[in-house]
């Protein structure tokens, strides 16, 4: 086997190992691929400067083309769809948006609120907090504030006229 064949073989092995790094991550295959690719180009320069330059240019053009094709088509493959996130995060929220609908609603404290606990509001279990006061289990409560996932309640007055302790 001549030096030309060895150079081409090293470049081909390098490209294969770099491509294998996509599917078997861990930097080992990629590192071996880069070293093999560089060794192939360097041995190409030992054959002749023109042959080494051709191998270098072909390697760079093939690398750029392969990277562009990978960016364009890999996300559309079955493996790419499983690996790459398909939706952007602009519609994501770190909280349940339905909590905003609870403002002003009344319910029953299912556990002692000291000052946090569980309430039943519109037939749904909701984690709630008070402004610091203690509320007994089974007491009527009213949602007075909603901020993200934080649902603030207060004990409702016995007559159903609003929150106890709230000034008119």
Characterise this structure:
The chain is of the alpha+beta class. It folds into two domains: 3-83, no CATH class; 97-155, OB fold (Dihydrolipoamide Acetyltransferase, E2P) (Beta Barrel), CATH 2.40.50.140. The chain contains four helices and five strands. The protein has helices spanning 3-23, 28-47, 49-73, 78-83; strands at residues 106-109, 116-121, 124-129, 140-147, 150-155. A five-stranded antiparallel beta sheet has the order 3-2-1-4-5, with no helix packed on it. Strand 1 and strand 2 (116-121) form a beta hairpin. The longest helix is centred in the middle third of the chain and has 25 residues, at 49-73. The radius of gyration is 33 Å and the shape is rod-shaped.
Judging from the principal axes of the Cα atoms, what is the shape? rod-shaped
How many independent structural domains? Answer: 2
Largest sheet, strands/sense/barrel: 5 strands, antiparallel
Poorly predicted parts: none
Strand content: 15-25%
Task: Please tally the β strands and state the result.
Answer: 5
Work out the helicity level.
Answer: 40-55%
What series of H and E elements makes up the topology?
HHHHEEEEE
Strand order of the largest sheet: 3-2-1-4-5
Gyration radius over CA: 33 Å
- Structural category: alpha+beta
The N- to C-terminal Cα distance equals 97 Å
* Total DSSP helices: 4
* Mean residue pLDDT: 87
Please summarize what this structure is:
By secondary structure, this protein is α+β, with helices and mostly antiparallel strands. It is 43% helix and 18% strand.
Main attributes?
OB fold (Dihydrolipoamide Acetyltransferase, E2P), 5 strands, alpha+beta, 5-stranded antiparallel sheet, 168 residues, 4 helices, 2 domains
């Amino acid at each position: 086997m001549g030096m030309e064949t060895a150079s081409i073989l090293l470049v081909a092995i390098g490209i294969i190992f770099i491509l294998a790094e996509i599917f078997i991550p861990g930097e080992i295959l990629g590192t071996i691929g880069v070293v093999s690719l560089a060794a192939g180009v360097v041995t190409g320069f030992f054959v002749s400067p023109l042959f080494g330059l051709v191998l270098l240019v072909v390697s760079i053009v093939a690398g750029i083309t392969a990277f562009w094709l990978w960016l364009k088509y890999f996300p559309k493959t079955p493996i790419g769809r499983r690996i790459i996130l398909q939706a952007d995060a602009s519609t994501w929220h770190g909280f349940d948006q339905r909590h905003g609908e609870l403002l002003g609603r009344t319910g029953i404290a299912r556990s002692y609120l000291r000052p946090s606990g569980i309430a039943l509001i519109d037939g749904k279990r909701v984690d709630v907090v008070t402004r610091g006061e203690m509320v007994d289990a089974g007491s009527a409560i009213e949602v007075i504030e909603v901020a993200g996932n934080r649902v603030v309640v207060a004990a409702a007055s016995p007559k159903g006229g609003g929150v106890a302790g709230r000034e008119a």
